[in-house]
Amino acid sequence: MDGSEVIPYPSHSMQSSALSPDAIITTTMKTASSPIALLGIPLDLGAENLGVDIGPKAFRYTKLVDKLASAGLNVTDHGDIPCPDRHTAKVGDPKQRHLKEILAVSEATAAKVEGFVRAGQRAVGLGGDHSVTLGLVAGASAAVDGDIGLIYLDAHGDMNTAATTLTGNIHGMHLASLMGFGGAELVNAYRPSAKVNKQNLLHIGGSDFDQAELELIRRENLSAFTLRDLLSTSLAPLWVKVDELASRVNHIWISFDLDVMNEQYAPGAGMPNRAGLSYREIAAIADYIGEKCPVIGVDIVEYNPLLDRDSRTADLAAELIAKFFGADYSWYTDYLAKNQRS
Ligand SMILES: [Mn+2]
Question: What is the whole-number distance in angstroms between the Cα of residue 335 and the centre of ligand 1?
């Protein structure tokens, strides 16, 4: 074999690369747009996983705002919504535990978020258990007259009602409430009626649905791209669903329960998950959403710092918030920022 037969190595490998030059340019040209208002909701009354109430404080200790700023995002921290302590709060209705307190926190949260969005800002909500999403989405929805899609990443359905719940914990019900299913108190939180049209939900990464949730999904023809769908088909069908949603609404809220991740990548979750998404899967999903969707707000919920290891979960959360907003923060961008010579 003589040298003339050698195939030039770089051109061949570049042509077969999945990431086209166009995609590379798009990725590096990401820039920040409207300012972002950050709000903590240190609520744990919707769940029974002790430790999620200190999530917002721990996110701040791990310099979340600085990380997002390094991604080019203009973030202002508006502090925390005051939340009652579980040791003094009364349970009330055992089928909707702490309903009264959760409604009060939801209304205060919604009023803040409605104000942020009406002022042209995007929002970040830090949980707290997942019931904080009730107020966050209610506020965003009010500001845009209900023209809102909801991309909901969670291992669970969160679509029980007081009639179907097995635990009485509201962090398993608020998604049903946001779409108008279930008891009047939760459905009518902040504003009367549903906050999100059921056709504008995209649930991603589910693996542990209750029977009543599966029945609701089938009966109402809700859109869910489950972990099994992902493993069966990979991500291309999800891109179609994301594109469809982005074409139907002018605003999208992203709700991210850390338990959608495999526990290797997010050990600090309220309910650590032995199944769940890998880092490369969520990085690709968040990147795609950030590129294609008009994201008006992001919540990161069920962060339990007591179970985190080396801030791995907090770092992942910062990276995903940046990606969902079309920016970039990662180990790699951090490395570049620290080693830039000019
Ligand atoms: Mn959840």
Answer: 33
pLDDT value of residue 31: 47
Contact 221, 201 (CB under 8 A): no
Report whether 148 contacts 252 (CB < 8 A). yes
1 part of a folded domain = no
23: in domain: no
| Residue 5 is assigned to a structural domain of this protein | no
Give the pLDDT score at 21: 53
Under 8 Å CB-to-CB from 198, ≥6 apart: which residues?
Answer: 179, 180, 220, 222
Q: Which residues surround ligand 1, an ion (CB under 5 A)?
A: 130, 154, 158, 257
CA of 35 to the centre of ligand 1 (A): 27
Is 0.85 surpassed by the pTM of this model? yes
Of 6, 82, 74, 87, which is closest to residue 35 (Cα–Cα)?
A: 74
| Whether the predicted pLDDT of 26 surpasses 60 | no
pLDDT tens digits along 105-164: 999 999 999 999 999 999 999 999 999 999 999 999 999 999 999 999 999 999 999 999
| Residues forming beta bridges with residue 75, ordered by sequence position | 36
Cα 339 to ligand 1 centroid, rounded to whole Å: 38
CA of 157 to the centre of ligand 1 (A): 7
CA of 208 to the centre of ligand 1 (A): 11
Q: What is the CATH number of the domain that holds 291?
A: 3.40.800.10
Cα(161) to centroid(ligand 1), Å = 14
Percent share of the chain, pLDDT over 90: 85
Per the structure, the count of domains in the chain is 1
